[in-house]
Specification:
43% helix, 12 helices, 14% strand, Aldolase_TIM, alpha/beta, binds glyceraldehyde-3-phosphate, eight-stranded parallel beta sheet, TIM Barrel
Length: 253
């Protein structure tokens, strides 16, 4: 049975003290109020990971994620952080292929393929993002784009490796815009992703893979989105920066 997940991607926001306070509020609220089985993940910026990792030690419900990593284990890569380092501070999940990384840092599917491998080698779980731009959607290229992102970035993995992958569908036009995909639009693409998994792996792999929706998800639309049969949770940006909103999203299953 696939897992339900709500992951908060803080992006480049908060100071360290603010981050610690946010995690403390989230863990308290989740403990007091959440009675579903969802896994909650917080993905703070790199400098906060060790401290927040410590604060989360032993927490069964709230896990630590990172927003990116380098594809190599170590070496002369000034400013970069490896999956080995992430593991050493308690990170369990790593977001890869976010559209902001693809757009601003020119990360392509070939590079992402290497990053996915690096993350899996350390026993961490990639949250692999796919999604189309508005232009691509208007040109009816959504499925083609997503198929290519999956094929080139992920589907080189063995069946065994693929078991540890989480996928996030994030339509680029919905990220940070307040313009959420309708639940029907999200469901359509999630079902397509599941079909692709069945085609490249098998029906069981398709059934077992967690597929998250991301893009202006908030406490008012989460329930409708999460009620779709192929939507297994969310990758949340803006609303993950407020403990109340984030916890309410976690409660939306
Ligand atoms: O990683 C999260 C997504 O980019 C969604 O961001 P958003 O919820 O602010 O639209």
């Amino acid at each position: 049975m696939r897992k339900k997940i709500v992951a908060g991607n803080w992006k480049m926001n908060k100071t360290y003290d603010e981050g610690l306070a946010l995690v403390s509020e989230i863990t308290n609220m989740v403990q007091d109020e959440v009675n579903n089985e969802a896994i909650v993940i917080v993905c703070p910026p790199f400098p906060f990971l060790a401290g927040i990792g410590k604060a989360l030690t032993g927490n069964e419900k709230v896990k630590l994620g990172a927003q990116n990593c380098h594809q190599n284990e170590s070496g002369a890569y000034t400013g970069e952080v490896s999956a080995v380092m992430l593991k050493s501070v308690g990170v369990e999940y790593v977001i890869l292929g976010h559209s902001e990384r693809r757009q601003y840092f020119l990360e392509d599917n070939q590079l992402l393929e290497a990053k996915v491998k690096a993350v899996l080698k350390q026993g961490l779980k990639p949250i692999f993002c796919v999604g189309e731009t508005l232009d691509q959607r208007e040109q009816d290229l959504t499925f083609e784009i997503i198929e290519t992102q999956l094929k080139e970035g992920l589907f080189h993995l063995s069946n065994e490796e693929f078991e540890n992958v989480v996928i996030a569908y994030e339509p680029v036009w919905a990220i940070g815009t307040g313009k959420t995909a309708t639940s029907a639009q999200a469901q359509e693409v999630h079902a397509f992703i599941r079909e692709q998994i069945a085609r490249h792996y098998d029906a069981q792999a398709a059934l077992d893979t967690t597929i998250l929706y991301g893009g202006s998800a908030n406490p008012s639309n989460a329930q409708e989105l999460f009620s779709q049969p192929d939507v297994d949770g969310g990758l949340i940006g803006g609303a993950s920066l407020k403990s109340r909103d984030f916890t309410d999203i976690v409660k939306s299953f």
